[in-house]
Write a sequence for this structure.
């Protein structure tokens, strides 16, 4: 039979490729805001950009940006993505590597405007491509995370420096708050803080529970088997008066166990591989 690639199939293939490409792109875009850490008992995973109830975009600002203003300095930033301005775009001079004067802010993920002699002067402080996520408080994985963004070789006060913005996202199940504060340290390093339910970890118990349940089950099964063998052997020895190794119940079965296991495994392997030559039905059935 020949398969003709009609327009329907072609459309299907195109749609399939777009879907695959989209999922790959989405994954790489959100990976900057995913974090998983283990301790001895749990796996804590954060996914800041994932939808949660009331926040379809996770921690991302629905406006396309967050804004915080302190001492005539204004900071704009977006988490897990670049900034988008549908309203209130930054107005400052020297917006070179953040989108230029007409698209200021659109090509970076954090921008600060400082007052220099009465004029707001722009400095890019963060790029999406160079950002970093870590646990806010190493001793308490429930605390939240810190997203850090960097931008290298910026001109600040006629000096070439590196800039950064650290956004602490504290876990708060009650809702989103902030950012209200902006701290500056060094020449061009900024800190701000917001509270958001997206900063809360999903906790998966990996130790204790899973293996504990299975371990208990295994011990019960082995105890039952041992009890059965012992009772059977005692009965056969004293009541049936079988005074040889045959006193062990179902001896034939136990003796054949290794061979049985081997053949069941082999048939399982065959099943997974599928019939490679001819049809399965032409074989004689395996007797167990
Ligand atoms: C990213 O964060 C980790 C953990 O806080 C740190 O060790 C690492 O140096 C950071 N990367 C950069 C580029 O700063
Ligand atoms: C800025 O960062 C770059 C790359 O990480 C480094 O080579 C350079 O020395 C840094 N500059 C300053 C002033 O710290
Ligand atoms: C704002 O001013 C206070 C006090 O002068 C200073 O400690 C703080 O670092 C300033 N903040 C920024 C973001 O410049």
């Amino acid at each position: 039979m020949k398969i003709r690639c009609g327009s329907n199939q072609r459309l299907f293939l195109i749609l399939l490729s777009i879907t695959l490409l989209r999922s790959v792109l989405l994954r790489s875009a959100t990976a900057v805001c995913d974090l998983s850490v283990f301790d001895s008992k749990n796996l804590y995973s954060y996914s800041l950009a994932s939808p949660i109830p009331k926040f379809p975009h996770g921690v991302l600002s629905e406006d396309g940006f967050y804004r915080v203003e302190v001492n005539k300095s204004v900071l704009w930033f977006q988490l897990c993505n670049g900034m988008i301005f549908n309203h209130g775009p930054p107005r400052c001079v020297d917006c070179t590597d953040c989108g230029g004067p007409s698209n200021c802010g659109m090509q970076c993920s954090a921008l600060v405007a400082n007052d220099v002699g009465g004029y707001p002067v722009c400095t890019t402080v963060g790029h999406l491509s160079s950002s970093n996520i870590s646990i806010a408080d190493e001793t308490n994985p429930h605390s939240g995370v810190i997203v850090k963004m960097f931008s290298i070789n910026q001109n600040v006060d006629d000096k070439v420096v590196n800039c950064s913005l650290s956004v602490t996202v504290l876990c708060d199940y009650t809702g989103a708050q902030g950012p209200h504060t902006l701290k500056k340290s060094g020449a061009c390093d900024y800190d701000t803080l917001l509270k958001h339910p997206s900063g809360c970890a999903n906790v998966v118990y990996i130790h204790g529970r899973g293996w504990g349940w299975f371990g208990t089950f295994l011990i019960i099964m082995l105890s039952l088997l041992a009890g059965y063998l012992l009772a059977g052997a005692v009965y056969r020895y004293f009541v049936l008066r079988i005074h040889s190794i045959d006193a062990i119940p179902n001896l034939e079965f136990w003796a054949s166990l290794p061979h049985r296991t081997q053949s069941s495994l082999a048939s399982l392997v065959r099943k997974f591989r599928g019939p490679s030559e001819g049809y399965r039905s032409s074989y004689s059935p395996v007797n167990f």
